[in-house]
Amino acid sequence: LRYAFNVYDIDRNSSIDRAEIQLVLRAMFELLGMSDAEHRGIYSVDQCVETIMKHLDVDEDQCLSKEEFI
Fold first, then answer.
1. What per-residue confidence (pLDDT) applies to 69?
2. Are 8 and 20 in contact (CB under 8 A)?
3. Which residues pair with 15 in a beta bridge?
4. C-beta neighbour count of 24 within 10 angstroms
5. pTM of this prediction?
6. Do 7 and 24 form a contact (C-beta atoms < 8 A)?
7. Which 3 state secondary structure label does DSSP give 4?
8. What are φ and ψ of residue 6, in 5° steps?
9. How far apart are CA 15 and CA 53, in angstroms?
10. Quick one: which of 13, 42, 32 has its CA closest to 51?
């Protein structure tokens, strides 16, 4: 999970914000051929980001610390 955190923490500021999550998820969706996922009844990138933040952002500061992520 530490490695995954570092993948998402693009600017290396020891936290992951919504934009970083969106960037990584969009790349993953595209690699999987799911760039039109929302049109096929699958969660969109934005819906995934909302779900991730809702469940992991314990202190509600709009970014994920390493502790929250892991």
1. 96
2. yes
3. 65
4. 18
5. 0.85
6. yes
7. helix
8. -65, -30
9. 12
10. 42
pLDDT, tens digit, 9 for 90 and up, residues 14-70: 999 999 999 999 898 888 887 766 656 678 888 999 999 999 999 999 999 999 999
The C-alpha atoms of residue 41 and residue 19 are separated, in whole angstroms, by 23
Helix axes 45-56, 18-31, angle to 10 degrees: 130
Residue 2 has pLDDT above 70, yes or no: yes
How many helices (H) does the chain have, and how many strands (E)?
4, 2
Residue 54's identity, in one-letter code, is K
If you search the block for the tokens 């314990």, which residue do you land on?
58
Q: Give the DSSP per-residue string, 15-68.
A: EEEHHHHHHHHHHHHHHTT-TTGGGGTSPPHHHHHHHHHHHH-TT-SSEEEHHH
In single-letter form, the type of residue at position 24 comes to V
Tokens of 28: 């993953």
CA distance 28 to 61: 25
